[in-house]
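Let's do one together. I've listed all components of the complex below, 421 residues spread over two lines.
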Amino acid sequence: MKITLNINNRDYETEVKPGEYLTDTLRRLHQVSVRRGCDTSSCGVCTVLIEGKPVPSCAFLSYRAEGKRITTVEGIPDEASELSRYFGGEGADQCGFCNPGIALSVYALKQAQGPYTEANIRHVLTGHLCRCSGYHAQVEAVKRYLEANHE
Amino acid sequence: MMKIKSVYKPASLEDAYQELLKSSKHVLMAGGAWLRLSNRTVEKAIDLGCLDLAFINDTAEAVEIGSMTTLKAVEDSEIVSGLYDGILPAAVSQIVGIGLRNVVTIGGNVVARHGFSDIITPLLAMNAQLKFYDKGLLSLHEYLETRGKTTDILEKIIIAKVPSRGYFKKVRKTALDFAVINVAVTKTEAGFNISVGSRPSVGMLCETAMALLNKASNIDENLVDKAAKCAADSLKFSDNHRGSGDYRRTLTEVYVKRGLLQLLDLEEKA
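Okay, and this is what the predicted structure of the assembly comes out as:
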């Protein structure tokens, strides 16, 4: 199937198989921040935003993304960079493999304007597995980032 | 992984239904998140995503949830939260992460009759009705009793608006895991409903325990104990890597009892 995907405000024409998931398509299109993790939609590392909503790209069929706005972490460089400073400050970051997915979910939360409570931050981060940091530091980093960037 | 040779985008429900009837190798595609659970090769996947089946309607008598409504939309719906103390959104909110809930549809989950479903269990206890394109209305309970492939299209799930209370409990080993067991208990003017799922087979009503409670003129803690035991004894449980059948039976008795006590506003004795 020949489809056109809009990734970070740029159109890409590409050929996909009918049952192909978006992780494969995006990586083929060099969107390498979209990582392949569990491939069972449990770990969150392949998260992208479709029309501003976080979805695991390993569970989203590529042809269904046609005509929709796809955002990867490459599409939000300033926000991702700012968030990474808070991650560094809280020691919430080690290998960084899970960061792009988390950055996109936090960005979606910010766009939806909260609520920025700890309970909601934890709710939003559920589904993003991190094998290094133990989560608490990440929650603190996200909390501080949202407090500082709250409009 | 399911192998799909082509995708068909139907213009209407009738178009989708006719295409489905043409071959046993034509399948309906809902959220499409769990193609990895199947090794089938399908000639044509009929995409239901273009048929306006994603909606939540609030009518005078019932709440209607379109089959292509995502779990996240169900979770966020104030209309659905108003039914049975919000047990359906509560159950949905515990399924993996927000991302997956933005993809998975309620209809796909129900029609597939997944044993691990945390949605079927509360819907059973809420007396949900299923509206199919060809067969019309069928209760979820009746649908689960049928076996084999369903050659029909689920349009919507209908939940009657009645004064009600509800209890839902999912027992799991880790935050993102499937349930070891899930239990739903509801109470309406017609009586109690009790359903248990992830046994590990699909959710089921505990009809003998429900009859015991609904025939009684007075329900005290002794009867609650009896009904909880009856619920656990009347269902079939099996072993898998999440837990043994015996463990599931024990959990069922405990959580059915807690559910009943909560809905009866009774305290559990130490």
